[in-house]
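pinning this so it doesn't scroll away 📌
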Amino acid sequence: MTDDDARLRLLVVDDEPFTLKALQRLLKHHHVDVASSGREALELFERHGNYDVIVCDVMMPELTGVDVYRHVAQRRPGAEKRIVFVTGGAFGDEIVRFIESVPNELVSKPFDRDNLRAVVERVGRAQD
């Protein structure tokens, strides 16, 4: 296996520019596409499709991480299992219920670098 074979294809989604850059740097040993909004993430998902992992902020204006999850699940059933949610906390009851209802990983901000990388690797290498 070559180094390139070991790299995962990631889509990283966060509306905060500093966080988006930090995530991109932390995960730079993989192929990383970035999106600064839920809408941009869905455009990239439609265009490029088969990401090994989607690292997605839960709370974003316009389209939330929940909206991204639902779109991915509808367009490519099973691919929603590869979403890792990131959050700074503080969201409403509906979002809390959703997060508790899905088995997806949730990583809290500020990130523990090693934990984030381990979660991405575990999700990306898991067989459906």
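📌 and the second one:
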Amino acid sequence: MKKTINFLLITAVLMFSAVAMAQSTVSGTILEAGSNIPLPGANIIEKGTSNGVTSDFDGNFTIKTNETSGELVITFIGYNSETIPFSGDVALGNIVLESSQVGLEEVQIIASVAVDR
């Protein structure tokens, strides 16, 4: 009986240690291309999951990933998204997002009916 309990205990410890080791911490800073201004509120999502964080006021982020390796998708409104690979606990440093050159065309407003007041 004692050997069975020891075996189950060792098996449970090994399972939990494998789950704990299948995680990593990735950090970095999101900057705008050209001016190197931090982008607060950028979205950082682990690709293929719903695990994500946003960058702070200085553009810094830290995410605990579910896997030890994979890809991070970084998006910010008005900028092109970036996909960055990671492996293990890593500091990615500065990640630069370029502006998406979406131009707006002029808008014309034409009155079709004149209203007499």
